[in-house]
Protein backbone atom coordinates (compact mmCIF):
# COMPACT_ATOMS: atom_id res chain seq x y z
CA UNK A 1 0.00 0.00 0.00
CA UNK A 2 1.26 3.46 -0.90
CA UNK A 3 -0.09 6.56 0.84
CA UNK A 4 -0.14 9.82 -1.14
CA UNK A 5 -1.02 13.14 0.50
CA UNK A 6 -2.07 15.78 -2.04
CA UNK A 7 -2.41 19.29 -0.71
CA UNK A 8 -2.59 22.80 -2.14
CA UNK A 9 0.15 25.12 -0.88
CA UNK A 10 -2.76 27.61 -0.81
CA UNK A 11 -6.49 27.25 -1.51
CA UNK A 12 -7.74 26.69 -5.06
CA UNK A 13 -4.52 25.35 -6.64
CA UNK A 14 -6.36 22.24 -7.91
CA UNK A 15 -5.67 19.60 -5.24
CA UNK A 16 -9.11 17.97 -5.30
CA UNK A 17 -9.24 17.81 -9.10
CA UNK A 18 -5.82 16.20 -9.02
CA UNK A 19 -6.82 13.56 -6.45
CA UNK A 20 -9.81 12.59 -8.60
CA UNK A 21 -7.99 12.53 -11.96
CA UNK A 22 -4.91 10.76 -10.60
CA UNK A 23 -7.11 8.16 -8.88
CA UNK A 24 -8.83 7.37 -12.16
CA UNK A 25 -5.58 7.01 -14.13
CA UNK A 26 -4.07 4.72 -11.46
CA UNK A 27 -7.24 2.63 -11.27
CA UNK A 28 -7.35 2.26 -15.07
CA UNK A 29 -3.73 1.05 -15.02
CA UNK A 30 -4.78 -1.87 -12.83
CA UNK A 31 -4.12 -0.73 -9.25
CA UNK A 32 -6.69 -0.49 -6.49
CA UNK A 33 -7.35 3.08 -5.37
CA UNK A 34 -8.93 4.43 -2.19
CA UNK A 35 -9.44 8.22 -2.07
CA UNK A 36 -10.18 9.95 1.23
CA UNK A 37 -11.55 13.49 1.49
CA UNK A 38 -10.00 15.32 4.47
CA UNK A 39 -11.26 18.76 3.44
CA UNK A 40 -14.42 20.18 4.99
CA UNK A 41 -15.48 21.53 1.59
CA UNK A 42 -16.29 17.85 0.92
CA UNK A 43 -16.15 18.25 -2.86
CA UNK A 44 -14.06 15.22 -3.86
CA UNK A 45 -17.17 13.02 -4.25
CA UNK A 46 -18.52 15.35 -6.95
CA UNK A 47 -15.71 14.20 -9.28
CA UNK A 48 -16.79 10.60 -8.66
CA UNK A 49 -20.47 11.07 -9.49
CA UNK A 50 -22.06 11.91 -6.14
CA UNK A 51 -25.15 14.15 -6.43
CA UNK A 52 -24.51 17.92 -6.06
CA UNK A 53 -26.41 18.09 -2.79
CA UNK A 54 -24.86 14.99 -1.21
CA UNK A 55 -23.64 15.93 2.27
CA UNK A 56 -22.79 12.79 4.27
CA UNK A 57 -19.33 11.46 5.11
CA UNK A 58 -16.93 10.42 7.87
CA UNK A 59 -17.41 13.66 9.84
CA UNK A 60 -21.09 12.78 10.39
CA UNK A 61 -20.33 9.76 12.58
CA UNK A 62 -18.56 9.22 15.89
CA UNK A 63 -16.14 6.43 15.05
CA UNK A 64 -14.39 4.77 12.14
CA UNK A 65 -16.53 1.60 12.28
CA UNK A 66 -19.55 3.76 11.44
CA UNK A 67 -17.52 5.69 8.85
CA UNK A 68 -17.10 2.42 6.94
CA UNK A 69 -20.78 2.79 5.98
CA UNK A 70 -19.90 6.04 4.19
CA UNK A 71 -17.42 4.58 1.69
CA UNK A 72 -18.63 4.57 -1.95
CA UNK A 73 -17.42 2.92 -5.15
CA UNK A 74 -17.57 4.97 -8.37
CA UNK A 75 -18.28 3.61 -11.86
CA UNK A 76 -14.53 3.00 -12.43
CA UNK A 77 -14.21 0.99 -9.21
CA UNK A 78 -12.48 3.72 -7.19
CA UNK A 79 -13.33 3.44 -3.50
CA UNK A 80 -13.79 6.85 -1.86
CA UNK A 81 -14.83 8.36 1.45
CA UNK A 82 -16.45 11.85 1.49
CA UNK A 83 -15.78 14.29 4.32
CA UNK A 84 -19.42 15.11 5.15
CA UNK A 85 -20.80 18.31 6.61
CA UNK A 86 -19.98 18.35 10.32
CA UNK A 87 -17.35 20.58 11.89
CA UNK A 88 -14.23 18.68 12.97
CA UNK A 89 -11.04 19.34 14.87
CA UNK A 90 -7.63 18.88 13.28
CA UNK A 91 -7.15 15.85 15.56
CA UNK A 92 -10.20 14.17 13.96
CA UNK A 93 -8.57 14.54 10.55
CA UNK A 94 -5.34 12.96 11.79
CA UNK A 95 -7.35 10.12 13.45
CA UNK A 96 -9.06 9.44 10.14
CA UNK A 97 -5.66 9.22 8.44
CA UNK A 98 -4.47 6.71 11.06
CA UNK A 99 -7.73 4.72 10.98
CA UNK A 100 -7.37 4.25 7.23
CA UNK A 101 -4.32 2.08 7.98
CA UNK A 102 -6.79 -0.48 9.37
CA UNK A 103 -8.55 -0.89 6.02
CA UNK A 104 -8.19 -4.21 4.24
CA UNK A 105 -5.79 -3.59 1.33
CA UNK A 106 -4.31 -5.51 -1.52
CA UNK A 107 -0.56 -4.92 -1.85
CA UNK A 108 -0.78 -2.68 -4.90
CA UNK A 109 -3.32 -0.26 -3.42
CA UNK A 110 -2.92 3.52 -3.58
CA UNK A 111 -4.41 5.38 -0.62
CA UNK A 112 -4.78 9.00 -1.71
CA UNK A 113 -5.72 11.79 0.71
CA UNK A 114 -7.23 15.11 -0.40
CA UNK A 115 -5.76 17.37 2.32
CA UNK A 116 -7.06 20.86 3.16
CA UNK A 117 -4.69 23.71 2.25
CA UNK A 118 -4.92 25.36 5.70
CA UNK A 119 -3.43 22.53 7.82
CA UNK A 120 0.36 22.32 7.77
CA UNK A 121 1.36 18.98 6.25
CA UNK A 122 4.32 18.64 8.63
CA UNK A 123 1.79 18.12 11.46
CA UNK A 124 0.26 14.99 9.85
CA UNK A 125 1.05 11.50 11.14
CA UNK A 126 3.49 10.78 8.29
CA UNK A 127 6.00 7.95 7.94
CA UNK A 128 9.05 7.46 5.75
CA UNK A 129 7.17 5.64 2.96
CA UNK A 130 4.61 8.40 2.53
CA UNK A 131 4.65 10.70 -0.48
CA UNK A 132 3.49 14.30 -0.02
CA UNK A 133 2.76 16.40 -3.09
CA UNK A 134 2.05 20.09 -2.51
CA UNK A 135 0.26 21.62 -5.47
CA UNK A 136 1.42 25.06 -6.58
CA UNK A 137 0.51 27.45 -9.36
CA UNK A 138 3.22 29.36 -11.21
CA UNK A 139 2.71 32.71 -9.51
CA UNK A 140 4.55 35.02 -7.15
CA UNK A 141 2.52 34.00 -4.07
CA UNK A 142 3.41 30.34 -4.56
CA UNK A 143 7.03 31.37 -5.18
CA UNK A 144 7.12 32.92 -1.73
CA UNK A 145 5.18 30.04 -0.11
CA UNK A 146 7.52 27.38 -1.55
CA UNK A 147 10.58 29.07 -0.02
CA UNK A 148 8.83 29.44 3.35
CA UNK A 149 7.77 25.79 3.24
CA UNK A 150 11.30 24.66 2.42
CA UNK A 151 12.54 26.41 5.54
CA UNK A 152 9.85 24.67 7.62
CA UNK A 153 10.76 21.31 6.12
CA UNK A 154 14.38 21.79 7.14
CA UNK A 155 13.26 22.43 10.72
CA UNK A 156 10.83 19.47 10.69
CA UNK A 157 13.64 17.11 9.63
CA UNK A 158 11.04 15.22 7.60
CA UNK A 159 11.44 11.54 6.76
CA UNK A 160 8.71 11.33 4.13
CA UNK A 161 9.14 12.06 0.39
CA UNK A 162 8.07 15.67 -0.21
CA UNK A 163 7.52 17.30 -3.61
CA UNK A 164 5.95 20.37 -5.17
CA UNK A 165 3.96 20.03 -8.39
CA UNK A 166 2.88 22.85 -10.71
CA UNK A 167 -0.78 22.71 -11.74
CA UNK A 168 -2.79 24.84 -14.17
CA UNK A 169 0.34 25.82 -16.10
CA UNK A 170 -0.30 28.41 -18.82
CA UNK A 171 2.30 27.88 -21.55
CA UNK A 172 1.45 31.27 -23.12
CA UNK A 173 2.59 33.17 -20.01
CA UNK A 174 6.17 34.45 -19.92
CA UNK A 175 6.00 34.87 -16.15
CA UNK A 176 4.94 31.25 -15.66
CA UNK A 177 7.70 30.04 -18.01
CA UNK A 178 10.31 32.09 -16.11
CA UNK A 179 9.13 30.90 -12.69
CA UNK A 180 8.97 27.26 -13.75
CA UNK A 181 12.48 27.48 -15.26
CA UNK A 182 13.81 29.14 -12.10
CA UNK A 183 12.25 26.46 -9.85
CA UNK A 184 13.57 23.68 -12.08
CA UNK A 185 17.12 24.99 -11.90
CA UNK A 186 17.16 25.82 -8.18
CA UNK A 187 14.63 23.62 -6.34
CA UNK A 188 15.14 19.85 -6.59
CA UNK A 189 11.84 19.11 -4.82
CA UNK A 190 9.80 20.64 -7.67
CA UNK A 191 8.56 17.85 -9.98
CA UNK A 192 10.21 17.97 -13.43
CA UNK A 193 6.89 18.37 -15.30
CA UNK A 194 3.64 20.28 -14.87
CA UNK A 195 -0.08 19.78 -15.29
CA UNK A 196 -1.28 22.15 -18.00
CA UNK A 197 -4.23 24.43 -17.61
CA UNK A 198 -7.02 22.67 -19.48
CA UNK A 199 -10.72 23.51 -19.72
CA UNK A 200 -11.37 19.76 -19.71
CA UNK A 201 -10.80 19.68 -15.95
CA UNK A 202 -13.65 22.11 -15.37
CA UNK A 203 -15.86 20.51 -18.01
CA UNK A 204 -15.42 16.99 -16.64
CA UNK A 205 -16.25 18.25 -13.14
CA UNK A 206 -19.47 19.71 -14.56
CA UNK A 207 -20.30 16.11 -15.58
CA UNK A 208 -19.31 15.01 -12.03
CA UNK A 209 -16.50 13.03 -13.61
CA UNK A 210 -12.81 13.17 -14.56
CA UNK A 211 -10.82 13.94 -17.73
CA UNK A 212 -10.06 10.29 -18.57
CA UNK A 213 -13.77 9.52 -18.91
CA UNK A 214 -14.82 12.76 -20.63
CA UNK A 215 -11.81 13.60 -22.85
CA UNK A 216 -9.32 10.70 -22.89
CA UNK A 217 -7.11 12.37 -25.54
CA UNK A 218 -6.87 15.70 -23.74
CA UNK A 219 -3.63 17.42 -22.73
CA UNK A 220 -4.67 17.23 -19.08
CA UNK A 221 -5.20 13.50 -19.24
CA UNK A 222 -1.72 13.00 -20.75
CA UNK A 223 -0.34 15.09 -17.89
CA UNK A 224 -2.11 12.97 -15.25
CA UNK A 225 -0.65 9.85 -16.87
CA UNK A 226 2.80 11.44 -16.57
CA UNK A 227 2.06 12.18 -12.91
CA UNK A 228 0.93 8.60 -12.27
CA UNK A 229 4.07 7.18 -13.90
CA UNK A 230 6.30 9.55 -11.93
CA UNK A 231 4.59 8.57 -8.64
CA UNK A 232 5.06 4.88 -9.47
CA UNK A 233 8.80 5.62 -9.83
CA UNK A 234 8.82 7.28 -6.38
CA UNK A 235 6.65 4.70 -4.63
CA UNK A 236 7.54 1.54 -2.77
CA UNK A 237 4.91 -0.49 -4.69
N1 LIG B 1 -5.21 21.82 -14.63
C1 LIG B 1 -6.31 22.58 -14.53
N2 LIG B 1 -6.75 23.30 -15.59
C2 LIG B 1 -7.85 24.08 -15.54
N3 LIG B 1 -8.60 24.22 -14.43
C3 LIG B 1 -8.21 23.54 -13.33
C4 LIG B 1 -7.07 22.69 -13.31
N4 LIG B 1 -6.95 22.14 -12.06
C5 LIG B 1 -7.98 22.63 -11.34
N5 LIG B 1 -8.74 23.47 -12.09
C6 LIG B 1 -9.93 24.22 -11.66
O1 LIG B 1 -9.55 25.05 -10.57
C7 LIG B 1 -10.62 25.17 -9.63
C8 LIG B 1 -10.13 24.73 -8.25
O2 LIG B 1 -9.82 23.35 -8.29
P1 LIG B 1 -9.92 22.41 -7.01
O3 LIG B 1 -9.45 21.08 -7.45
O4 LIG B 1 -11.27 22.49 -6.39
O5 LIG B 1 -8.83 23.11 -6.07
P2 LIG B 1 -8.53 22.91 -4.51
O6 LIG B 1 -8.96 21.53 -4.13
O7 LIG B 1 -7.04 23.09 -4.41
O8 LIG B 1 -9.28 23.98 -3.80
C9 LIG B 1 -11.74 24.30 -10.17
O9 LIG B 1 -12.64 25.12 -10.89
C10 LIG B 1 -11.04 23.34 -11.12
O10 LIG B 1 -11.89 22.89 -12.17
MG1 LIG C 1 -10.20 20.89 -2.62
Automatic annotation (TrEMBL):
InterPro entries assigned to the protein according to its UniProt record, in alphabetical order: Cellulose_synthase_operon_BcsQ (IPR017746), P-loop_NTPase (IPR027417)
Domain of life (superkingdom): Bacteria
Coiled coil: none
Matches recorded under NCBIfam families: cellulose_yhjQ
Protein name: Cellulose synthase operon protein YhjQ
